[in-house]
Amino acid sequence: MAESYHLLKRADFIFRNENDWEDILTKTIKRTPQDIINELISSELKGRGGAGFPTGLKWKITAEAKSAEKYVICNADEGEPGTFKDREILSRVPYKVLTAMAVCANIIGSKKGIIYLRGEYHSLKEALEKTISEFEYYCKKIKLDFTVEVFMGSGAYICGEETALFESLEGHRGEPRNKPPYPTIKGYMDKPTVINNVETLAHTFTIFKYGAKKFYDLGVQFSRGTKLFSVSGDTPKPGIYELELGMSLQDFVNEFGDGDTKAVQVGGASGFLVPRKKFQETAIGYQGKLTGISLPTGGSMMIYNSSRSMFNVLDNYLEFFREESCGQCTPCRVGCQQLLIGIKAVKRGERPAQYLDKLLKLSETMQITAKCGLGQSVANSFASIVENFREEMIY
Amino acid sequence: MEITRDLKNHKVQLSENAIALVKKICRRFNYEEGELINILHAVQSQFGYLPAEIQELIAKELDISVAKVYGVVTFYSFFTMKPKGKYPISLCMGTACYVRGAENILNEIKRQLNIDEGETTPDGLFSLSSLRCVGACGLAPVLMVGEKVYGRVAQADVRKIISEYKAGCPTHPSKE
User: Fold this and answer.
1) The NADH-ubiquinone oxidoreductase 51kDa subunit iron-sulphur binding domain covers which part of the protein (chain A) (predicted)?
2) What per-residue confidence (pLDDT) applies to A72?
3) Distance CA B3, CA B17 (A)
């Protein structure tokens, strides 16, 4: 219990400039796959894109899958509103990500890596490809058969969803597939695939270099290690910060708020809005915390002060979802439209306030029945905003 | 110009050169269906947009249905079926930018240029579109002209930015 939550602690691993990636790569690939996987599992590193799947386990399952062809994919389709950490990682420490991809490839038996880079990040491509060619040159030198390709996204939020990303890589509309089968068994080109967020890969570099214990000692139970947070909105110091997991939202706001913070949106449009009265009891980490509410996050922390209308915020999120819904499944396609129309009708007085309850039910239905994470998570922001700021939706 | 537009019939005429260029790009990607997105990117970077006639041509070259090509083109916001301006202006409407007044900026641009979202000015200089979060939330609100990013834009900056581009453009009528 004692360590279930702690004060805000800064860290500096991800952006620490390590000049020894060549040594780390050479050393790490000499270890047995089992050894590396065990180390990752014991570090308790979980996916940093937001879903939080244990990274070591993902690599293990893919390593055990039988196939002559396998892939390692770095998900750099960073599209969640308010997130800009992956962009920084890829421009400042791309070799960490590449090293991690190569180690992973070596473990699972893959020769090809792909970085799916968000279309809006086109300006990063040239420098990234230059780093890749240096990296591939070194791989050749140590007789590691591994190449990396950059694939540019074309402006679709849904492609951050892993199976939609595969569809997009294969030249199709980015419409999510049914799961299972999971990517570890049937991913890109229907082959076993490890797909990790940029930040997750960068963390594995830290673990390879400093060992699992160093990583495990940071953070709290069930939420080990550090995480990058993209801080924006009403804050005097927007930017990217590496913090230990498990801090309370109150401490976060004390540090980053402007003194007039009304609410914080944790995890972007698909995340949750936390009002001021719940700052103290809310911790930032993965599920399974002992006390209070724990919110996983892809790292987007958007701070709103008292001048902001929560109706406008919700309106913006819903417009975003309506726009980005791929249209494949009905709950999401129609649900997003109806939620948006609905809150506008209530605001204009064309519908009674009780209509909001009907809309909440609709969002719940979407959570249960939508095909992928997009439609399922609309309810997160919708319910947390409507329930906590009901009066702002009506008047 | 390799594409002649007939505005009355919403038809475009592809010149021999244009057809050859599209075919060449398809060949470069080995006519592989899986390369469709890369092909569309390559073609769009040549012509600026992807009119229906070009999509039909690509479908024929790759031996896939036009619906498949059209489906992909309309799915991704980077592909456009309308020609963009010489200086495409895009405004981030991500949440961070939105709460920091992106809508006012958007309205100001609309007023200055007298066009709506998705439109191009009659002189072909500017087009306007809104984007979903460009990942520069720390600089909100963010405006982009082509690849150039303007951060912390105030309503008053809009006129200045636009006039900079007008002045820097040799083909602008006021300079002729």
Assistant:
1) 311-356
2) 98
3) 9
Q: What type of residue sits at position A122?
A: H
Predicted confidence (pLDDT) at residue B9 exceeds the cutoff of 60: no
DSSP letter string, A29-66: HHS-HHHHHHHHHHHT-B-TTTT--BHHHHHHHHHHS-
CATH for A310-394 (3.30.750.24, 1.20.1440.230, 2.60.40.1180, 3.40.50.20): 1.20.1440.230
Chain A's closest residue to B74, CA to CA, is: A173
Domains (range + CATH), chain B: 3-75 (no CATH), 87-175 (3.40.30.10)
CA nearest neighbour of A76 among A30, A112, A122, A109: A122
pLDDT score for B7:
53
pLDDT of residue B171: 47
Q: Architecture of domain A21-216 in CATH? A: 3-Layer(aba) Sandwich (3.40)
Question: What is the DSSP annotation of B61-86?
Answer: HHT--HHHHHHHHHHSTT--SSPPPS
- What parts of chain A have a pLDDT lower than 70? 1-7, 287-293
What is d(CA A101, CA A148) in angstroms, rounded to the nearest whole number? 9
Nearest CA among A305, A232, A231, A303 for reference residue A262: A305
The complex's ipTM works out to 0.89
Q: Among all residues of chain A, which has the CA nearest to that of B70?
A: A173
pTM (2 decimals)? 0.91
Minimal C-alpha gap between A133 and chain B (Å): 20
Question: Residue A9's pLDDT is what?
Answer: 87
Confirm whether A21-216 and A310-394 share one CATH topology.
Answer: no
B92 labelled ligand-binding: yes
Chain A residue nearest residue B102, CA to CA: A316
By the CB < 8 Å criterion, does B91 face chain A? no
Residue B3 is predicted with a pLDDT of 67
Other CB atoms within a 10 A radius of the CB of residue A154 amount to 22
Q: Which of A171, A233, A269 sits opposite B99 (nearest CB)?
A: A233
Burial profile A49-68: b = 16 or more Cβ within 10 angstroms, e = fewer: bbebebbbebbbbbbebebe
CB–CB contact A156 B76 (8 Å): yes
- Cα separation of B1 and B21, whole Å? 13
Instruction: Work out the burial of residue A170: count CB atoms within 10 Å of its CB; fewer than 13 is exposed, 13-18 middle, 19 or more buried.
Output: middle
Q: Rounded to an integer, what distance in angstroms lies between the CA atom of residue B130 and that of residue B111?
A: 15
Nearest to B137 among A84, A120, A324 (CB): A84
Q: Please report which confidence band the pLDDT of residue B175 belongs to, taking 50, 70 and 90 as the band edges.
A: very low
User: Which A residues 325-354 touch B at CB under 8 Å?
Assistant: 326
Sequence ranges of the domains in chain A: 21-216, 310-394
Task: Please determine, for residue B8, whether its predicted confidence score (pLDDT) is greater than 80.
Answer: no
Closest Cα partner for A152 from A114, A198, A119? A119
Q: Among A71, A154, A328, pick the best mutation site for testing chain B contact (most B Cβ within 10 A).
A: A154
Contact B121, B127 (CB under 8 A): yes
Question: How many Cβ atoms sit within 10 Å of the Cβ of residue A327?
Answer: 14
